[in-house]
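I have been asked to look over a protein record a colleague put together. What it holds is a sequence and that sequence's fold in token form. Please read both lines and tell me whether the tokens look consistent with the sequence. I do not need a full report, just your reasoning and any doubts. This is what I was given:
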Amino acid sequence: MRFPLGKARLHGELTAPEGAQGLVVFVHGSGSSRHSPRNRSVSRFFNGLGMATLLFDLLTEEEQPVDERTRQFRFDIPLLSERLSGVVDQLRGNVELRDLRLGLFGASTGAAAALIAAAARPADIAAVVSRGGRVDLAADVLDKVRAPSLFIVGELDSEVLMLNRRAAERLQCQHELAVVSGATHLFEEPGTLEEVERLAGKWFLEHLAG
């Protein structure tokens, strides 16, 4: 898929099983892209549960190499959330997709963009899941999020776990904080990414299906 947003042209990959129950939009984190092996693994798991998925790049093909050298864009949360909101608007206008309930799956700084978009589009976003997210970077809008939100954090990711606990206390919507035993920030330990898939899949099925 292509998403024209002003001068930016974003690229995405949509996978939609027949009779899909909801659409999960991936909002990747710092230095990542739609080609991330972890995100693609989680996407396949969601597809197996009968959910459609969209993997897309928040940065253009020109911006990506600049960010890899300078980190110029990855913490520009207003830019990332504005682009995500633009993608959500285009999905809502897509005849083939607009009837699917939308969920946002954010990682690292992408989780902040997901929460900001959810606060800005309460009628469009039905659920949010954060994986190791810098949800503290959405501090100004946490009390405005209405979508049920699940924060998944690794037990050994101590600083991010602390930030998530503080952020969760400010949410006014249905929410949970899930701590994955033995996991660090990237959930690279055996079985930890599978636990993320299980927790996130259950949350999205509960709030997107039907």
User: Anything to note?
Assistant: The first helix runs from residue 37 to 48.
